Amino acid sequence: MYGLIWRGIPGPWFVKLVVCLALVAGATALLWYVVFPWADPYLPFNDVTVGGTPASDGGAPAGEASPGQ
Q1: What is the pLDDT of residues 1-52, one digit of tens each?
Q2: What is the rounded distance in angstroms from the CA atom of residue 9 to the CA atom of residue 29?
Q3: ∠ CA 13-19-25 to the nearest 5 degrees?
Q4: If phi over 0 gives left and psi between -120 and 50 gives alpha, with beta otherwise, what is residue 65?
Q5: End-to-end alpha-carbon separation of the chain, Å?
Q6: CA–CA dist 33, 25 (Å, integer)
Q7: pTM tops 0.85, yes or no
């Protein structure tokens, strides 16, 4: 795949390198500014839950006294 792209770009190796870097930068910018913001509402990163029963004493770990006791 990379060889196909490298051979398809005209010019000497330094021109090919600059064009390849521009392609990588363009793909990165497209992902960063278009694709990731579009996909963000569909990703479950904000729905973080931990299994088990909630602590009834204000969140103190089991076996330790809560601050009010």
Answers
A1: 678 888 899 999 999 999 999 999 999 999 999 999 999 888 877 666 777 6
A2: 21
A3: 135
A4: beta
A5: 65
A6: 12
A7: no
